């Protein structure tokens, strides 16, 4: 899978060479190309923005500069144009799973008051996405999140593919159970006894209970789409007031 990121701050993307993403690039599983938008700007100042039509504060990024950049990097085939914006759909695991099916994701990182709206209207397969209900200075941080979340779903990216299945927001969409490790006792807090019992069935049931409880307490909105609950699941959720 290939990512092409376009930004006026290409240096933002250096951390993508670290850790598992760095290894995935070395092995060729994932390709990440970072492009400087100013390569497609014209004039002595290589300006990428102009004042907003209709007046108002701030500057807007020019459609003509973005158009030249996207036309150059976008490949025919299963390509998605992802545009970070606080008014987009929330970047969640379902969206990430969908993006992971693409051959190429082009991420267009806006700055200032964002990119001229005609860019999102003009292209096919556009996903305008938001990292959350707050405003960042630019799309770079959102692009980093999208790339990392999408790349780790590529086959062979994780050493153990099982880790992807048991995570929060995967499969059923529950939050993951709490995790513990050594030392056995820390500042008066013990690891739950069941996790030391060696009884794999009891551990699996305890973990499921904890997932249900955590989701009910922290993200009750995720319970709406839950299906296939057994009687024990229902009992746990009833205890949590559901
Ligand atoms: N004036 C815009 C608005 O109110 O929707 C916000 C512009 S923001 C200062 C500049 C850029 O940061 C946006 O074009 C977008 O690329 C990025 N950005 C800001 N907040 C974001 C968020 N929550 N999710 C994704 N991208 C965001």
Automatic annotation (TrEMBL):
Catalytic activity: guanosine(37) in tRNA + S-adenosyl-L-methionine = N(1)-methylguanosine(37) in tRNA + S-adenosyl-L-homocysteine + H(+)
Taxon lineage: Bacteria, Bacillati, Actinomycetota, Actinomycetes, Actinomycetales
GO cellular component: cytosol
GO MF term (any one): acyltransferase activity, transferring groups other than amino-acyl groups
Quaternary state and interactors: Homodimer.
Enzyme class name: transferase
Binding site for S-adenosyl-L-methionine: 110, 131-136
Superkingdom of source: Bacteria
Keyword DNA damage: no
Similarity remark: Belongs to the RNA methyltransferase TrmD family.
GO biological process: tRNA N1-guanine methylation
Subcellular location: Cytoplasm
Record keywords: Cytoplasm, Methyltransferase, S-adenosyl-L-methionine, Transferase, tRNA processing
Protein function: Specifically methylates guanosine-37 in various tRNAs.
EC number: 2.1.1.228
Protein name: tRNA (guanine-N(1)-)-methyltransferase
UniProt keyword Methyltransferase present: yes
């Amino acid at each position: 899978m290939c990512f092409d990121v376009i930004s006026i701050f290409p240096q933002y993307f250096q951390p993508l060479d670290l850790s598992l993403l760095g290894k995935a690039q070395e092995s060729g599983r994932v390709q990440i190309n970072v492009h400087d938008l100013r390569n497609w700007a014209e004039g002595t100042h290589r300006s990428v923005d102009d004042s907003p039509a209709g007046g108002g504060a701030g500057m807007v990024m020019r459609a003509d500069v973005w158009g030249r950049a996207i036309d150059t990097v976008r490949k025919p085939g299963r390509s998605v144009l992802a545009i970070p914006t606080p008014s987009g759909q929330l970047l969640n695991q379902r969206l990430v799973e969908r993006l992971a099916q693409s051959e190429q994701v082009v991420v267009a990182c806006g700055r200032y008051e964002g990119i001229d709206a005609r860019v999102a209207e003009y292209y096919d397969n556009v996903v305008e996405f938001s990292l959350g209900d707050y405003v960042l200075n630019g799309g770079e941080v959102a692009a980093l999140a999208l790339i990392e979340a999408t790349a780790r779903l590529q086959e062979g990216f994780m050493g153990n593919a099982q880790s992807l299945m048991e995570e929060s927001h995967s499969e059923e969409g529950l939050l993951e159970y709490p995790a513990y490790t050594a030392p056995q006792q820390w500042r008066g807090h013990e690891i739950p006894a069941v996790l030391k019992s060696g009884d794999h069935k009891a551990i699996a049931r305890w973990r499921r209970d904890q997932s249900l409880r955590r989701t009910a307490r922290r993200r009750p909105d995720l319970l709406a789409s839950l299906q296939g609950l057994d009687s024990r699941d229902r009992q746990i959720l009833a205890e949590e007031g559901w």
